[in-house]
Amino acid sequence: MQTNVTAPQSHRQSHNETFLQGVKDCVPTLLGYLSIGFAAGVVEKTAGLSIAEIALLSVLLYAGSAQFIFAGMIGASASVTGIIFTIFFVNLRHILLSAALSPYFRHLSPIKNILIGSLLTDETFGVASNNTAGRQYLSERWMHGLNVTAYLNWIAANIAGAYLGQWITNPEKFGLDFALPAMFIGLLVLQMASRGKIAVDIVVALSAVVIVVVMNMMSFGSVSIIAATILASTIGMVIGKWR
């Protein structure tokens, strides 16, 4: 008679929830990481950062949008306070990403959750959210495999861009400054296609455009983008709940 107490089925790790499987599931996003990371490295290099500074930035900050912003603001001789606050507000979305996945890691300690959340990105969130269907929990090892692979690939791509960026004096000529928006557009389209709620997504997109246009006409400037993000998301949530 077996007397060992086993973990609940939802806590067990099957053969497809290992660290190695997390690495494999990250592979489809690596090409995007390489291109965006390379572009970030080039832009940072042309902004006057050294290769060592770029490597340190990608290790500690690890945020594509924030690093593009950092490079642009450094090139424009912006103040340290301005850079810090801008990056802080741009990356507030990571609180929402972490909150959305946190229920699937409620069986872990706070420290383990912090380790997972600290390396969470838009891309790894997308991969993870696609694996939440029909599940109450996600594997810690699988998530670490996904996150660590993306993290190391991003650092390598930044350093490669920084090194080769010495010979690229005008990244805008090659469209590298548009690399990040292009990646987010691609991720958005894939996410919309997988959700199967095109009508709601179209309403949210149109709402965001209208809000930005109206607020720009009222001279609200860049604040309109943040307002459009919050208000359009709220409209989408209300429609989804109502339906």
From TrEMBL:
<dbReference type="GO" id="GO:0005886">
    <property type="term" value="C:plasma membrane"/>
</dbReference>
<dbReference type="GO" id="GO:1903785">
    <property type="term" value="P:L-valine transmembrane transport"/>
</dbReference>
<keyword id="KW-0472">Membrane</keyword>
<dbReference type="Pfam" id="PF03591">
    <property type="entry name" value="AzlC"/>
</dbReference>
<keyword id="KW-1133">Transmembrane helix</keyword>
<protein>
    <submittedName>
        <fullName>Branched-chain amino acid ABC transporter permease</fullName>
    </submittedName>
</protein>
<feature type="transmembrane region" description="Helical">
    <location>
        <begin position="148"/>
        <end position="168"/>
    </location>
</feature>
<dbReference type="InterPro" id="IPR011606">
    <property type="entry name" value="Brnchd-chn_aa_trnsp_permease"/>
</dbReference>
<comment type="similarity">
    <text>Belongs to the AzlC family.</text>
</comment>
<keyword id="KW-0812">Transmembrane</keyword>
<keyword id="KW-0813">Transport</keyword>
<keyword id="KW-1003">Cell membrane</keyword>
<feature type="transmembrane region" description="Helical">
    <location>
        <begin position="223"/>
        <end position="240"/>
    </location>
</feature>
<feature type="transmembrane region" description="Helical">
    <location>
        <begin position="198"/>
        <end position="217"/>
    </location>
</feature>
<feature type="transmembrane region" description="Helical">
    <location>
        <begin position="174"/>
        <end position="191"/>
    </location>
</feature>
